[in-house]
Design a protein that fits this description.
CATH superfamily of chain B: MetI-like
Radius of gyration of chain B: 25 Å
CATH topology of chain B: MetI-like fold
Structural class of chain B: mainly alpha
Shape of chain A: globular
CATH topology of the largest domain in chain A: D-Maltodextrin-Binding Protein, domain 2
Low-confidence stretches of chain B: 1-14
Order of helices and strands of chain A: HEHEHEHHHEEEHHEHHHEHEEHHHHH
Distance between the termini of chain A: 69 Å
Number of strands of chain A: 10
Structural class of chain A: alpha/beta
Helix content of chain A: 40-55%
Chains: A alpha/beta (about 450), B mainly alpha (about 300), C mainly alpha (about 300)
CATH architecture of the largest domain in chain A: 3-Layer(aba) Sandwich
Strand content of chain A: 5-15%
CATH architecture of chain B: Orthogonal Bundle
Helix content of chain B: over 70%
Number of domains of chain B: 1
Oligomer: heterotrimer
Largest sheet of chain A: 8 strands, mixed
Order of helices and strands of chain B: HHEEHHHHHHHHHHHHH
CATH class of the largest domain in chain A: Alpha Beta
Number of helices of chain B: 15
Largest sheet of chain B: 2 strands, antiparallel
Radius of gyration of chain A: 25 Å
Distance between the termini of chain B: 30 Å
Chain lengths: ~450, ~300, ~300
């Protein structure tokens, strides 16, 4: 038991502690403020001119491991430009799902970073349409960025012929498999769509699943559907579908949905995957229960993080039965907000981190899939990224993942149809019709 | 405050009237000011936005009156599904975690060995950060290696095993089960705190009169828990309609849109579909529905 | 459910006392078994966290989440603590809790007092006005809040979290404290008033001490909510130096892969202070004070 006096003491203590803490909490921001507020005010007047202190706010999705590696690059930049302090504002998280939301809020409230990471296509488009990002033509001229990056990547990030971003990554996707396991079973890499399906059937006979995917955010499942669309519709129609130039309610789309249902029905896909997170969909693959995952060039880094022996693994481009053999690929880029406090310093930083010299000097994971020409990963250290590099830089043509072709709202409509097809709540015909209806509704609202 | 402290016993009567006149507002002032500045003002702004068509990003903003609200109720199938899911969720929350919470509180109010540890365990889920909850329950429900299917198979109920979160029909109940796991602690601690206020003499006296356990519970415990009940039930309604976190982390509204609730649908529109106006309108629909249900209840129960 | 019978036996006859005791023992045993079984179910996720945090990534991914670790690896804790500023996030969250929680609860209790125990004209309207804050989803207020913090010049700093954290706790805390204050008999306050006590004195000397269990409960609820709050912290705080633990935990997940083992080690580290706080506050969550006060 305790009496009132004790309670009073406790409360008094709590108030005292809170007052003390308020003193503590008030000091760091105030002492930090002069170093960040003052210079940015000065910088706005006379940006990037030597002398004034500039704090460069750099928004990205680099996770903890990546931050550690990037530190050396940032340090080198700061050593070269002692007046610029780079502050990393990273928003990682599974699938980087919250990053666009955080970025958007910072822009809407008028406090954008100085430069930020962005995917390509329709994910970047709203920022361009809203006039929130700078057109970077002048910087391309100033720093001579033309010809510095893989051409298809530059094409892919253009909007109405203008460049609003600087290429960062050139990423392609393919089927990854466990070579050692396949050799053991006598399986070989398929070269046609029919062979691909035969292979899946063989895996099923061997008591395995063919593909493992995680449907939670929709985009992981989408990759397989994109592959079917490329196969059934062919490159030309596939591109037109992505641009909504032709109707989705057509035979090749129905065939793609039908193939998807067939793969699920035949037990070729690890079942009940609709809300499995893409990360978790790796468990069956690593455990040898599934033969394939449809992943990108980054997967070599994933293998390493998961303590797998990279020598056991390899990848191939899914056979589409079309010439040229296109695969899913997408760019990632750096953008500068129109409201950035230090656009010149941001451009300077972008030039630094995308330059071949710097990327060669610091062979960190994030540079293994660089969009910069002339940067190649160490082929002993990164054999598969090295192999990818060859394919990506010489690719005649690629197709974008649908989520970089459609705006998010329409995309979620696409995902909804995709899920319904998997769960057999819609027939392929109904799916194609509903998808076309969604597209028309969306177009009507524009 | 100074006027109050000066009050001398002699002039008590005259001063008291004035004191009661001003005093409430003096006590309320800090909370009211804080509340007006940091919540009412942003709320007012979001209310304004709900009458606009706006992408939340550009300067292109247009007044469209009640169009957003009309769209929610008459055009948007997903919003209607979300509303229905919210209603189911609310009914479930009113029934299950609150009852379990009350039972646990009553049980753990007794002098039981290890009751401190038990209380901590049942309130434990609240300490876990959301990212951990989402990940672990995804593993618990995993169709291949998940713990739940494993247990079902082990006790001979293997035919029940399924991909709980990936099946349209079971995704919402499965998510709700996680909410129960995470949600019994809150009513439990509130009821426990309320039980502390019950004078033990009342039990002694009633027992002298030969009352049995059940009578004690219904005649003494429950009436004393009235205020706690008001809090627990009205919060159950309000928070159920605001449900967002668990759905967002566990199913992301899927499969399809089977587990969309108004909270996630609002978030998707406001933050991902560039429909800030529509998102704000959904938020106000959530607020109005809950207030219409909760306020009359709170008011009636507050009357002495 | 049998009722709360904390008090000792006061049987009228020996016979009845014996049978009641046997019955009591039986119900207690059943109750105990049920509680323990439930506790085990409730603990399973915690066990997974511990198991995941003490194994290697390779072991986890090839043997599965629910397998026993092949080898106990403690390096995850070291990595979690040292990588990505985790110690900074930890310090930020601690500062936030120590400052914000008492401040919010005191403000809320002050407001709850007149709403529960005084009669004045707008009492009802003000109470309902506060309840509106309970019903609005916080997401739609984020952009206006960010603008406001920018105007206050504290945007991006830890201090920017205090106004919204306090305000989002207020409606709930006022609601709860009002409820608990109402259970305190008005005669106590009336008697004190007759003895010349001020309302200010009544609040601190009668209401607050009598509400110790409620206050401790609110304290723990609010501390937990603050410690685990993600969305506001994510949006209002941009620089890595000012971030809090839940935002920091996101950094163990990248765009393409998750460091499950480090994440779970980070989770374990992050929940430790909260568990300590709970154990400490547990003492104040017991025993009816009202009864004792009434007798005086």
């Amino acid at each position: 038991m305790f009496d009132r006096k004790n309670v009073m003491k406790l409360l008094a203590l709590a108030v005292l502690v809170s007052l003390l803490a308020s003193a503590c909490v008030a000091t760091p921001p105030q002492s930090a403020a002069p170093s960040s507020e003052q210079p940015s005010a000065g910088a706005a007047a006379q940006p990037a001119a030597g002398g004034e202190q500039i704090t460069l706010r750099w928004a990205n999705i680099i996770d903890a491991t990546g931050q550690e590696q990037w530190q050396a690059v940032v340090d080198a930049f700061q050593a070269k430009h002692p007046n610029i302090r780079v502050v990393s504002e990273s928003t990682a998280g599974s699938g980087a799902a919250v990053y666009p939301d955080v970025l958007k809020t910072s822009m809407a409230s008028g406090s954008p970073p100085d430069l930020f990471f962005m995917w390509g296509g329709s994910i970047a488009q709203p920022f361009i349409d809203a006039g929130q990002v700078m057109e970077l033509g002048p910087y391309y001229a100033q720093y001579g960025w033309d010809g510095k990056f893989a051409p298809w990547v530059v094409e892919r990030i253009k909007s109405d012929g203008k460049l609003y971003g600087v290429p960062y990554h050139a990423l392609g996707m393919g089927f990854w498999y466990n070579k050692t396991l396949w050799d053991e079973k006598g399986w070989t890499v398929p070269t046609t769509f029919a062979e691909q399906e035969e292979l899946c059937a063989k895996m099923k006979e061997a008591g395995m699943y063919c593909v493992s995917m995680g449907g939670k955010f929709g985009w992981h499942t989408m990759r397989v559907l994109d592959y079917f669309l490329e196969h059934h519709c062919g490159p030309e129609v596939h591109d037109q579908l992505n641009r909504l130039e032709v109707s989705w309610d057509q035979q090749c789309v129905i065939d793609s949905y039908a193939s998807f249902q067939k793969w699920v029905d035949n037990g070729w896909v690890v079942p009940d995957f609709l809300t499995i997170s893409p990360d978790d969909s790796r468990f069956p693959f690593f455990a040898g229960e599934a033969g394939l995952v449809l992943e990108g060039v980054w997967y070599e880094g994933v293998l390493k993080n998961n303590e797998q022996n990279v020598a056991d693994y390899d990848f191939y481009l899914p056979p589409t039965d079309h010439e040229p053999l296109r695969f899913s690929a997408f760019p990632e880029q750096w953008m500068i907000p129109s409201g950035a406090a230090n656009p010149d310093a941001a451009a300077l930083f972008i030039d630094f981190i995308t330059s071949p010299e710097v990327q060669k000097q610091f062979p960190i994971n994030d540079f293994a899939n660089s969009a910069t020409i002339g940067v190649n990963p160490d082929c002993n250290e990164w054999p598969l990224s090295c192999k990818w590099r060859e394919i990506i830089l010489t690719a005649e043509d690629t197709y974008p993942p649908t989520d970089q072709a459609f705006v998010k709202e329409l995309m979620d409509g696409f995902f909804e149809v995709q899920d319904a097809i998997v769960a057999k709540r819609l027939t392929p015909e109904e799916g194609a019709r509903l998808m076309q209806q969604r597209a028309e509704e969306w177009l009507a609202r524009q | 405050m100074s006027t109050i402290t000066k009050t001398s016993p002699n002039h008590r009567a005259t001063h008291r009237r004035r004191r009661l006149h001003l005093t409430p507002y003096l006590f309320l002032a800090p909370a009211l000011i804080w509340y007006l500045v940091f919540l009412v003002y942003p709320m007012y702004q979001s209310l304004t936005i709900s009458f606009m068509s706006w992408d939340g990003l550009s300067a292109n903003i247009r007044f469209i009156g009640l169009d957003n609200y009309r769209r929610i109720f008459f055009e948007d199938d997903t919003a209607r599904l979300a509303l229905w899911n919210n209603i189911l969720w609310t009914l479930g929350t009113l029934l299950i975690p609150t009852t379990i919470g009350l039972m646990l509180a009553v049980a753990l109010d007794r002098k039981l060995r290890g009751r401190t540890a038990l209380r901590a365990i049942f309130y434990g889920p609240a300490v876990l950060p959301l990212v951990a909850v989402g990940m672990i329950w995804a593993w618990m429900y995993n169709p291949q290696f998940g713990f739940i299917n494993y247990v079902l198979k082990a006790i001979g109920l293997g035919f029940l095993a399924r991909g709980w979160l990936s099946v349209y029909e079971t995704a919402l109940p499965a998510t709700f089960l996680t909410a129960v796991w995470g949600g019994v602690g809150f009513p439990m601690v509130l009821y426990l705190a309320a039980l502390q206020a019950i004078p033990q003499e009342q039990y002694e006296a009633a027992k002298m009169d030969g009352a049995n356990g059940r009578q004690l519970f219904w005649k003494i415990t429950m009436p004393w828990l009235r205020e706690a009940n008001v809090i627990v039930f009205s919060l159950a309604v309000i928070n159920s309609f605001k449900t967002f976190d668990l759905i967002y982390t566990m199913t992301y509204g899927g499969p399809g849109r089977a587990t969309q609730v108004l909270g996630t649908w609002m978030y998707f529109h406001a933050f991902q579909y560039y429909n800030a106006g529509y998102g704000a309108a959904i938020a106000w629909v959530i607020a109005i529905i809950t207030l219409v249900m909760a306020i009359p209840y709170i008011q009636r129960m507050s009357r002495d | 459910m049998t009722a709360t019978t904390n008090s000792g036996a006061n049987a009228k006859s020996l016979h009845r006392s014996a049978s009641m005791k046997a019955e009591q023992r039986f119900t207690d045993t059943v109750l105990y078994i049920v509680l323990i079984a439930m506790a085990i179910v409730w603990l399973v996720p915690f066990i997974i966290i511990v198991l995941t945090s003490v194994r290697s990534m390779g072991d986890l991914i090839s043997n599965g989440v629910f397998a026993w670790p092949k080898e106990i690896v403690l390096s995850n804790f070291d990595r979690a603590w040292n990588i990505g500023n985790f110690s900074t996030y930890f310090r930020n969250s601690l500062i936030l809790i120590v400052f914000k929680v008492p401040l919010g609860i005191v403000i809320a209790s002050l407001a709850a007092f007149p709403l529960a125990k005084m009669q004045f004209r707008f009492s009802n309207i003000i109470f309902v006005f506060f309840l509106i804050g309970l019903a609005i989803p916080i997401h739609v207020t984020l952009t206006p809040l960010l603008v406001m913090m920018k105007q206050l010049g504290i945007q991006g700093t830890l201090a920017a979290l205090i106004p919204p954290y306090v305000v989002f706790g207020l409606p709930f805390q006022i609601f709860v404290m009002r409820g608990f204050f109402r259970t305190v008999p008005s005669e106590l306050l009336e008697a004190a008033r007759i003895d010349g006590a001020t309302e200010w004195g009544n609040f601190w000397r009668i209401l607050m001490p009598l509400s110790a269990p409620a206050l401790a409960t609110l304290f723990i609820i609010d501390a937990l909510a603050t410690w685990n709050e993600l969305l506001i912290a994510l949006v209002l705080i941009s620089s890595n130096d000012s971030r809090t633990v839940p935002v920091g935990l996101l950094q163990f997940q990248g765009q393409f892969s998750s460091q499950y083992t480090q994440l779970m080690a980070g989770v374990l580290i992050s929940i430790t202070p909260i568990i300590l706080l709970y154990i400490f506050l547990q003492r104040y969550m017991v025993a009816g004070l009202t009864a004792g006060a009434l007798k005086e």
